[in-house]
């Protein structure tokens, strides 16, 4: 049980600390004229939403989900290709319906540049979650598929993975864990700069 808890904590840190370990740049002085004009289609949402304040439909090869966020009543638009686990996420202001933030994720962790806008749609902040990762997400996906026979673009319900800085706070790493059998879990860390394996260990699952 202790080892299970340890693995869970490790990946909770991977998924959550990514948001805290990236440099935030105030770019309003340089991009003060960049304005997000895109608005949430509130009329379509209200006319077609279900009882749980959510609407889903397929557009070409993409699953589109529109919903209202419980924590702040903002609106959210999520687009996920049926071919992989890459996600485009837009959040819209609950009152003006203007774009509030936009960015991409791979499964649950943020990737690439995320933009943030004020209530008037003016760009105020940008975070680059790929900063420091010269070994890209696609490189990581390819390595895991080739060396461990795990396709992260399919069903990954039995696999945990994410990325963050190593414990010393200096090295960007990817982490992945998966069950070998009912008793053993394999945990691997991969260097986010050159793709080398920096940790590979077997943990008891009970």
What does the secondary structure layout of this molecule look like, with pairings?
Blueprint: H1 2-17, E1 24-25, H2 42-48, E2 54-59, E3 62-68, E4 75-81, E5 86-92, E6 99-106, E7 109-117, E8 123-128, H3 137-148, E9 159-165, E10 172-179, E11 184-191, E12 197-204
Antiparallel strand pairs: 1-8, 2-3, 3-4, 4-5, 5-6, 6-7, 7-8, 9-10, 10-11, 11-12
In short:
The chain has 206 residues and is of the alpha+beta class.
The N- to C-terminal Cα distance equals 5 Å
Q: Outline, from the CA principal axes?
A: globular
Strand order of the largest sheet: 1-8-7-6-5-4-3-2
Helix fraction by DSSP (H/I, runs of at least 4): 10-25%
How would you describe what is shown here?
It is a single chain. With about 210 residues, the protein is α+β, with helices and mostly antiparallel strands. It has three helices and twelve strands, in the order αβαβββββββαββββ. The chain has helices at about 1-15, 40-50, 135-150; strands at about 25, 55-60, 60-70, 75-80, 85-90, 100-105, 110-115, 125-130, 160-165, 170-180, 185-190, 195-205. The chain has an eight-stranded antiparallel beta sheet, covered by helices on one side. The protein has a four-stranded antiparallel beta sheet with strand order 9-10-11-12, covered by helices on one side. Strand 9 (about 160-165) and strand 10 (about 170-180) form a beta hairpin. The termini are close together. Residues about 5-35 have low confidence and may be disordered.
């Amino acid at each position: 049980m202790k080892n299970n808890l340890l693995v869970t904590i490790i990946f909770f840190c991977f998924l959550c600390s990514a948001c805290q370990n990236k440099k935030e740049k105030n770019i309003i002085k340089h991009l003060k004229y960049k304005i997000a004009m895109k608005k949430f289609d509130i009329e379509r949402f209200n006319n077609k939403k279900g009882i749980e304040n959510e609407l889903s439909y397929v557009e070409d090869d993409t699953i589109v989900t529109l919903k209202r966020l419980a924590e702040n009543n903002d609106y959210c638009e999520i687009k996920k290709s049926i071919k992989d686990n890459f996600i485009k996420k837009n959040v819209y202001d609950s009152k003006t319906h203007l774009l509030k933030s936009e960015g991409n994720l791979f499964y649950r962790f943020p990737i690439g540049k995320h933009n943030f806008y004020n209530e008037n749609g003016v760009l105020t902040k940008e975070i680059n979650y790929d900063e420091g990762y010269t070994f890209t997400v696609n490189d990581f996906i390819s390595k895991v598929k080739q060396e461990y026979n795990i396709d992260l673009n399919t069903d990954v319900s039995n696999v945990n993975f994410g990325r963050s800085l190593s414990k010393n706070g200096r090295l960007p790493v990817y982490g992945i864990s998966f069950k070998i059998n009912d008793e053993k879990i394999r945990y691997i860390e991969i260097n986010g700069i050159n793709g080398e394996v920096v940790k590979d260990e077997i943990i008891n699952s009970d």
